[in-house]
Amino acid sequence: MIHVANLHKSFRGQQVLKGVNLEFASGKITTIVGTSGCGKTVLLKHLNALYLPDGGEVFVDGVDITKLPQDELYRIRSKFGVLFQGAALLDSLTVFDNVAFPLREKTKTSEADIRAKVGERLEQVGLGAMGGKLPAELSGGMKKRAGLARALIMDPEIVLFDEPTTGLDPILATSIHQLIARTQQVFGFTGVVVSHTIPQVFEISDYIAMLANGVIEEVSPPEVFCSSHNPAVQQFIHGKTEGPIHVL
Amino acid sequence: MVSFLGRTGRFALDQIAGMGRMFSFLMSAIFLAFRPPAKIHLIIYHIKTIGVDSLSVVALSGFFTGMVMGFQGYYSLRKFNAESWLGSVTALGLLRELGPVLSAFMVTGRTGSAMAAELGTMRATEQIDALDSMAINPIKYLVSPRIIASLLAMPLLTAIFDVIGIFGSYLVGVSLLGVSSGSFFAGMENSLVFHDVYSGFLKSLSFGLIITWICCYKGFHAPPMATGVSQATTESVVLSFVFILVWDYFLTSIML
Fold first, then answer.
1. Which of B127, B132, B137 sits opposite A90 (nearest CB)?
2. Cα–Cα distance between B70 and B170 in angstroms, integer?
3. Is the dihedral of CA B16, B145, B60, B253 positive or negative?
4. Which domains does chain A have, with CATH numbers?
5. Chain B neighbours among A 93-132 (CB < 8 Å)?
6. In terms of CA atoms, which chain B residue is nearest residue A73?
7. C-beta atoms of A88 and B135 within 8 A
8. Whole-angstrom distance, CA of residue A178 vs CA of residue A155
9. Are B179 and B84 spatial neighbours (Cβ–Cβ below 8 Å)?
10. Which residues have C-beta within 8 Å of that of residue A226, sequence separation ≥ 6?
11. Exposed e or buried b for every residue in B89-117, given b needs 16+ CB within 10 A?
């Protein structure tokens, strides 16, 4: 389980997170929504300590990961898979080698087993025939799928998705959402999704957390979230410029 | 006045903190280079990119530097009827000074700038974050193999520069300007001592470390945008040149 307590973070004097408190339910998908630039990705990157907070704690299975030495932190990070916004595939490696990369670097798995496991993951994300391609030869949607295959290759307990559908057309976005939901059902991981593709993302989410003005305004299941009387939630859902959310 | 002093003090503190971060980056990379597992395949790959891929430009610049030394040396020495010392002057100049410095400049321009741009792009496209999130230390994976590779490749490149430079000087001095072949090599043999070779070797080794350190640091910490990558590349080349010259002066003054 992940638990964020009183998280504060500033960049060059601008306070982005102003005391975020949030719990992520195990085995469920929690989606963080909010306006562009409100700090969703910053919050996500605190969950596996890619960013360290100015104040507050991030607990993963009861351990505060913000104060861990590097070896301990890397042990905790092995529980995570991350799908980055641009997929962040290593551009000098083929799709196959990208997906195989964590297995080759972090385990002593034989090449035969790596081939079998990578092939299986690539099939699951619909890229069975694309293993030999370089990332530069893939479309945006294919890159996200390859990134997802890499994020899942170590059978992580927690998977972080940073805007998995940004820049994709509505059909591809839906297919990525379905892929996330399907893989979550198969692997049972705890998913944290950062997105502003509403309402589509509600269909795959167990909980919606809304970040606004540096704090969590609301956490609830999608159906409750949509009917919330919280003015910030209403402003966000209906895309109004007037309201409690400060538009940048 | 107080605000001026405050700004100056803050600037000085920022510079000291920046140097501290650079030094800490280098220490981490060196420490991680000795920590298993060794990344042999990456070291071999970077020996190719730093050494083999820079070979043609180093050889070409060595050849022309040697030929220029042949001309300049001949016309200077002729004033003292000392043309026979051309081999000695060329070899001493190349082995002790020009070989290590110019080949380091060539490697900075050819490979160091590429290192900074590659790592800067990896930073901008979150590839470095991806490594970190996979619990793979990006300094161990990206920087340490480059440092080991440059320590191995740089002295070899410098040696090639020196040999081709001497050949260039020989061509001009002996074949074109009529210096005796025997006196060209005899002068070299009489004046060169092991210390000359050793000081050039030590310089090339330290220049290899400086280039990789600065270029990797600048690329690794490039602001994640297109202008950030170009800025990091420019800074890495300029700073490497300055560090090479300053360190060269320091080493020369203690090794003379």
1. B127
2. 7
3. positive
4. 2-79+156-238 (3.40.50.300)
5. 101-102, 105-106
6. B135
7. no
8. 19
9. yes
10. A199, A202, A237
11. bbbbbbbbbbbbbbbbbbbbbbbbbbbbb
Per-residue confidence (pLDDT) for residue A199, from 0 to 100: 83
Query: Is A242 exposed, middle or buried (CB count within 10 Å of its CB: 0-12, 13-18, 19+)?
Result: exposed
For residues A18 and A56, what is the distance between their CA atoms, to the nearest angstrom?
Answer: 10
* pLDDT tens sequence across B18-30: 999 999 999 999 9
> What pLDDT sits at residue A165?
86
- The verdict on whether omega for the bond into residue A199 sits within 30 degrees of 0, i.e. cis, is yes
- The answer to whether residue A246 scores a pLDDT higher than 80 is no
Handedness of CA B36, B37, B40, B42 (dihedral sign): negative
- Confirm or reject contact between B15 and chain A (CB < 8 A): no
Sign for the CA dihedral angle at B240, B241, B244, B249 comes to negative
Q: Which amino acid is at A42?
A: V
Average of per-residue pLDDT across A102-112: 93
Dihedral angle at the C-alpha atoms of B200, B206, B210, B211, nearest 10 degrees? 50
Query: What is each CA distance from A96 to A41, B70, B133, in whole angstroms?
Result: 27, 54, 19
pLDDT of A248: 59
- What is the rounded CA–CA span in Å between residue A217 and residue A233? 8
Q: Is the pLDDT of residue B2 over 80?
A: no
Per-residue pLDDT of A1-26, as tens digits, reads: 899 999 999 998 899 999 999 999 99
- Which whole-number Å values give the CA distances from B142 to A143, B28, B43, B109, in the listed order? 22, 12, 10, 19
Q: Collect all residues of chain A within an 8 Å Cβ-Cβ radius of residue B137.
A: 70, 74
B148: left (phi > 0), else alpha (psi -120 to 50), else beta? alpha
Average pLDDT in the B1-21 region?
89
What DSSP element (H or E) covers A29? strand A29-33
pLDDT at B1 over 80: no
Q: Quick check: A166 contacting B, CB < 8 Å? A: no
Using alpha carbons, list the distances in angstroms from residue A53 to B126, B131, B136. Answer: 19, 20, 21
| Cα distance from N-terminal residue to C-terminal residue, chain B | 46
Q: Does A148 touch chain B (CB under 8 A)?
A: no
Could you tell me the pLDDT band of residue A247, with boundaries at 50, 70 and 90? low
Number of neighbours of residue A200 by Cβ within 10 angstroms: 14
Q: Indicate the average pLDDT of chain B.
A: 93
Name the H helices within B171-223. Answer: 181-191, 194-220
Stretch B61-66: mean pLDDT: 96
pLDDT in tens, A130-174: 999 999 999 888 998 899 999 999 989 999 999 888 877 888 888
Q: CA of A19: how far to CAs of A15, A57, A192, A211, in Å? A: 10, 10, 19, 11
Which of B126, B130, B135 has the CB atom closest to A74's CB atom? B135
Q: Cβ(B172)–Cβ(B74) under 8 Å?
A: yes
